[in-house]
Amino acid sequence: MQHDLELLNLCKRYPGGHQAVDNFCLQARRGEFISIVGPSGCGKTTTLRMLAGFESLSSGRILLRGQDIGHLPPEQRPTSTIFQDFALFPHMTVRENIAFGLQVRRLAPAAMKARIDHMLGLFELDAVAGRRGSQLSGGQRQRVALARGLAVQPDILLLDEPLGALDANLRKSIQHELKLLQREVGITFLFVTHAQSEALVLSDRVVVMNRGRAEQIATPHTLYTRPATPFVARFIGRNALLAGRVQALGHGVALVDTALGLLKGSPAENSGLRIGDRALLVVPSEAMDLRAAPDDETQAPEGQIAGHVSGRTYTGQTVRLQVELADGECLSIKRHVDHADDLPNAARVQVSWPIAEATVIPAGPDPGSCL
Ligand SMILES: Nc1ncnc2c1ncn2[C@@H]1O[C@H](COP(=O)(O)OP(=O)(O)OP(=O)(O)O)[C@@H](O)[C@H]1O
Q1: Domain spans, the chain
Q2: Is the confidence metric ipTM above 0.85 for this complex?
Q3: Which burial class, exposed, middle or buried, applies to 284 when counting CB atoms under 10 A from its CB (0-12, 13-18, 19+)?
Q4: In sequence order, what are the residues at sequence separation of 6 or more whose Cβ sits closer than 8 angstroms to the Cβ of residue 294?
Q5: Strand ranges (DSSP E) for 75-138?
Q6: Best of 24, 42, 49, 196 to mutate for ligand 1, by most ligand atoms within 8 A of CB?
Q7: Do the domains 238-362 and 5-224 match in fold?
Q8: ABC transporter domain: which residues (predicted)?
Q9: Residue 144: which residues within 8 A CB-CB, separation 6 or more?
């Protein structure tokens, strides 16, 4: 199958030697909504700018439907970019802003008018078509930016934190519109965001970037349930990470010898784990079950861990109980507010999880993130 977009071993080394993007690879299907998330400075914007042509590649290739576009100037690439500040021309009207890219592409006047009218209708901007960019609300400016980006009928829409400047309510409603729009126009979206939850809600797949590299590219569900690296396990969702060594492997189960006893999980696919390897058992907070320890049990049964409740935070219908373990580590476990008082502070508890819902991954090098 030919991919819509292929990024092959993209590298960017800025003058001065900083490696901002390091062998970044991604293949996207036509119409996919892909987000790139990662800590500040990990190379998200640089990747997007290389795609748009605003930044040169140090090495690597960008293929669009098989054609190498990596060395074309921005105006010759079939991409549109929407930036966080929307970059509208404040002195131009909404209509003129949308017309801009079409004029650059020298569209015939009749075709241009038809295209602009269609965009004004699609984004419900007819009523403000004559207003200047400086006279619009945040939401309207965002819609003009989208209309301007899509008017040129790009093959790929690149979005760099396009919702970052909006307040929380507007952001939610525009998120929804963006998803509907993407389905309607059917083109590939590449979306850079700091907001992990936004990426997980909107995307077909998410790229988790760290230090210029794609650590894992997967569906939101897989990232949550099967993180492939220690960085992803720390960055996505709320996971407990228990360090140890693999003691046994077989039948889809890995037995890990940890400071808290022998614990079980499911080895990550293609992890190459072997007996004796240093490993992390990753247990999602949602998978953890908590119960009071029976008085006559001083140690947790095999496969479970013992601790005591050391604090709680109420968040509406749910409570997060902090559970301190024997090694001093703390877990945060969600519980319905109705069951929170069953386990008062200082109560001795046992924590268990379904083996299939915990993932065992290689411990890897020490964790780190971009500075
Ligand atoms: N023009 C430049 N010259 C030198 N270094 C740069 C330049 N632009 C970015 N960098 C560096 O490259 C790295 C990646 O930057 P980039 O803007 O791609 O990160 P990011 O993941 O988008 O960050 P943020 O989430 O903070 O926007 C950073 O360390 C940054 O300081």
Answers
A1: 5-224, 238-362
A2: yes
A3: buried
A4: none
A5: 79-82
A6: 42
A7: no
A8: 5-236
A9: 86, 88, 94, 97, 98, 123, 125, 133, 136
CB burial class (10 A; 0-12, 13-18, 19+) of residue 257?
middle
Which residue minimizes the CA distance to atom 18 of ligand 1? Answer: 43
Instruction: Give the tokens for residue 140.
Output: 């309207």
Q: Which amino acid is at 14?
A: Y
The predicted pLDDT at position 253 comes to: 95
Pick among 3.40.50.2300, 3.90.930.12, 3.40.50.300, 3.40.1620.10: CATH of 5-224: 3.40.50.300
Taking the C-alpha atoms of residue 101 and residue 304, their distance in angstroms, rounded to an integer, is 61
Q: Please report, as a single letter, which amino acid is at residue 104.
A: V
- Report whether residue 56 contacts ligand 1, using a CB cutoff of 6 Å: no
Q: What is the predicted pLDDT for the residue at 219? A: 97
Encoded tokens for 131: 């207003």
CA 137 / ligand 1 centre spacing (Å): 29
pLDDT score of 86:
67
Question: If the chain, 371 residues long, is cut into consecutive pieces of 10 residues, what is the mean pLDDT of each piece?
Answer: 87 92 95 94 95 94 93 89 78 90 84 91 88 83 86 89 73 78 86 88 95 96 93 93 94 93 91 93 92 81 90 88 89 84 90 95 62 31
Is residue 319 within 8 Å of residue 340, measured between CB atoms? yes
Say if CB 44 and CB 50 are below 8 A apart: no
Distance CA 88, CA 80 (A): 14
- Atom 16 (ligand 1) nearest CA: 43
Q: What secondary structure letter does DSSP report for 4? A: S
Neighbours of 147 (CB within 10 A): 23
42 C-beta closer than 6 A to ligand 1: yes
- Ramachandran bin of 153, using left for φ above 0, alpha for ψ from -120 to 50, beta for the remaining angles: left
Ligand 1 centre to CA of 80 (Å) is: 21
Closest CA to 328 of 260, 234, 265, 256: 260
Q: What tokens does 41 get?
A: 């400075």
Fold of 238-362: OB fold (Dihydrolipoamide Acetyltransferase, E2P) (2.40.50)
Supply the pLDDT for residue 182. Answer: 84
Ligand 1 and 91: CB distance under 6 A? no
